[in-house]
Amino acid sequence: MDRRDQRFQRIGEDRIAAVAAGLMTMAGMAGANQALAEKQGCTACHQVDKKVIGPAYNDVAKKYKGDKGAAAMLATKVKKGGVGVWGPIPMPPNDKVSEADVKTLVDWVLSLAK
Q1: Which of 60, 63, 68 is nearest to 108 (CA)?
Q2: Is 57 exposed, middle or buried (0-12, 13-18, 19+ CB in 10 A)?
Q3: What is the pLDDT of residues 44-60, one digit of tens each?
Q4: pTM of the model
Q5: Residues contacting residue 98 through CB under 8 Å, at least 6 positions apart
Q6: Which secondary-structure segment (H or E) carries 77?
Q7: Counted domains in the chain
Q8: Is residue 106 within 8 Å of residue 69, measured between CB atoms?
Q9: What is the DSSP letter of 82?
Q10: Residue 95 gets which letter from DSSP?
Q11: What domain range includes position 77?
Q12: What is the mean pLDDT of the chain?
């Protein structure tokens, strides 16, 4: 293999390493966000892939995919509670959850859209 081929091989290896690091970071963030949902008590009513008392996070993500105002609306719902969108059972207010955590959780849920 000549020098040029070696250089291109190194560039390819660097790109593969960068993509792998990015995927590992994303997986770590998803795990951290799941842990935050558990810490804040969200998982008592919600799971990622199945309805419990409230809707599955995947269903929420699908419903609001592409909706530019969804993050702000959902953040307000998380903080103040709500009823009617997913059925008659109300979601209680979560006013003890910090604004930063609410934003992190809502962004995470919306990122689950496929």
Answers
A1: 60
A2: buried
A3: 999 999 999 999 999 99
A4: 0.73
A5: none
A6: helix 70-80
A7: 1
A8: no
A9: B
A10: T
A11: 3-111
A12: 84
